[in-house]
Design a protein that fits this description.
The protein is of the alpha/beta class. It has four domains: 145 residues, Alpha-D-Glucose-1,6-Bisphosphate, Chain A, domain 3 (3-Layer(aba) Sandwich); 90 residues, 3-Layer(aba) Sandwich (Alpha-D-Glucose-1,6-Bisphosphate, Chain A, domain 3); 109 residues, Alpha-D-Glucose-1,6-Bisphosphate, Chain A, domain 3 (3-Layer(aba) Sandwich); 79 residues, Alpha-D-phosphohexomutase, C-terminal domain (TATA-Binding Protein). Helix content is 37%, strand content 20%. It has 15 helices and 19 strands. The strands form four sheets. Strands 2-6-5-3-4-7 form a six-stranded mixed β-sheet, with helices on both faces. A five-stranded mixed β-sheet has the order 9-8-10-11-12, with helices on both faces. Helix 2 links the parallel strand 3 and strand 4. The longest helix has 23 residues. The radius of gyration is 22 Å and the shape is globular. It starts with a strand and ends with a helix.
Length: 452
């Protein structure tokens, strides 16, 4: 069954994102700051702002801070810090709102704005609509100007939270060698410290605060260098974060990749065996692998699916009281510890599980058989229009007829880039590849015809 996801608003699947100084201009950011204040925070409220290492980050931070302060809000600057740290700090500081300036896994020239409510949750679509409506209104400056201050020890407090997520008296990682790929991003000042504190020998790569190189051929979206380094150093595990640290992928000593689906399977099965998973359900997106779903079903665990985006996963988890959820891309949520995806926390939790089982993570991951999946992207100015084109359903129908009964096609406009994303899943790798290639060719033909 094919699935379509249409995004048409300023907000995508993960906040606002685009090229800095082109889409994300100072003028837009200033207007947005005042709209955020009007829609979300009462005058006199308290906002925390963090950012990744991108060159445009300080510019956007300055404009956001000025706009929020002019609306009468007090602003605390947490500096360069992972996205999930802001979720933690909001609750720790009892703030009214958190903002992260980051384009996550996007290239260095992009930037973005992510918003978190007072519970540390990403905003709902309804809240985003309120902000967009407020953008259409002129807002007068407040009578009282808010203060802009530095949030002291923000990174240290977050690191202490991560270290305290496991029982350090009974679990330590001494004897383990870990290669950490920090993607020149926000985890660089924190992740090596956390894993060293837990006893591991840490080899950091791409760990300087270089926003001009963030995510470039490194991190969770480009695993080749981490795979090479893990093999080269004879490490027990490679850990790759994205630029803002809300997602993680793992690499075994031989380069074997452990994706988010297998991480969820490892965690859910471990908790279920110890009667710690109640209800016996995880939340995953429409992109998560059917193989994971079938493997968990054999263990009495169900999978509830959402649209793509860890925001949707998190809200569904809260609605249904579910403890584990995430995405194959590496956004994993352990709701007992955090309401949002956290790459460092996820790696710590999985290493703790492996310690208790006495089995390394790659061995645990290989027990979960996944179906072959093929991903394709089609660049176009209006991916929603291509997804809704009247010729598209027939192309999808023809492709689905060639899939086996357990095969799937997901066609969706990207929520962060001008791309139509195609995912084909089948029991047979060759069939998956063939159908994905044909589907891409047929959909590109529509784009070409529309341009001529």
């Amino acid at each position: 069954m094919a699935s379509l996801k249409i995004m048409t608003n300023l907000f995508g699947t993960d906040g606002i994102r685009g090229q800095a100084n082109r889409l994300l201009t100072p003028e837009l950011v200033l207007s947005l700051s005042r709209a955020i204040a009007a829609a979300m925070v009462p005058e006199g409220g308290h906002v925390i702002i963090g950012r990744d290492t991108r060159t445009s980050g300080p510019m956007i931070e300055a404009v956001l801070s000025a706009g929020l302060a002019s609306a009468g809000l007090d602003v605390c600057l947490a500096g360069i810090i992972p996205t999930p740290a802001i979720s933690f700090l909001i609750k720790d500081e009892r703030a009214d709102l958190g903002i992260v300036i980051s384009a996550s896994h996007n290239p260095p020239e992009d930037n973005g704005i992510k918003l978190f409510d007072r519970d540390g949750l990403k905003l709902s679509q309804e809240e985003e609509v309120r902000i967009e409506a407020a953008l259409q209104v002129t807002h007068e400056p407040a009578e009282t100007i808010g203060c802009v201050t530095i949030l002291e020890a923000a990174a240290t407090r977050y690191a202490a939270f991560l270290s305290g997520a496991i029982d350090v008296e009974h679990v330590d990682f001494s004897g383990m060698t870990l290669v950490l790929d920090c993607a020149y991003g926000a985890t660089a000042p924190i992740a090596p410290h956390v894993f060293r504190h837990l006893g591991a020998t840490v080899i950091p790569i791409h760990s300087t605060l270089d926003g001009s190189q963030i995510n470039v051929d490194c991190g969770a979206t480009h695993l080749t260098r981490l795979q090479e380094a893990t093999v080269e150093y004879g490490a027990d595990l490679g850990i790759a974060f994205d630029g803002d640290g809300d997602r993680v992928l793992l690499v075994g000593p031989d380069g074997f990749v452990i994706d988010g689906d297998r991480m969820m399977g490892i965690a859910a099965s471990y908790m279920a065996e110890r009667n710690l998973l109640s209800p016996a359900v995880i939340v995953a997106t429409i992109l998560s692998n059917r193989g994971l779903e079938l493997w968990l079903k054999d263990r009495g665990i169900s999978v509830h699916r959402t649209d793509v985006g860890d925001r949707y996963v998190s809200h569904r988890m809260i609605e249904e009281g579910i403890q584990i959820g995430g995405e194959a891309s590496g956004h994993i949520i352990f709701r007992d510890h955090s309401p949002t995806g956290d790459g460092i926390l996820t790696a710590v939790m999985l290493l703790e599980i492996a310690h208790h089982r006495g089995v390394d993570l790659p061995t645990l991951a290989r027990k979960i058989p996944l179906f072959p999946q093929c991903a394709r992207n089609i660049a176009c100015n209006d991916p929603s229009r291509l997804a809704e084109d009247p010729r598209t359903p027939e192309i999808l129908h023809q492709a689905e007829e060639n899939l086996g009964p357990l095969g799937r096609i997901v066609l969706r406009p990207s929520g962060t880039q001008p791309l139509l994303r195609i995912m084909v899943e089948a029991e047979d790798a060759d069939r998956c590849e063939t159908i994905a290639n044909q589907l891409e060719e047929d959909l590109r033909a529509i784009v070409h015809l529309d341009r001529t």
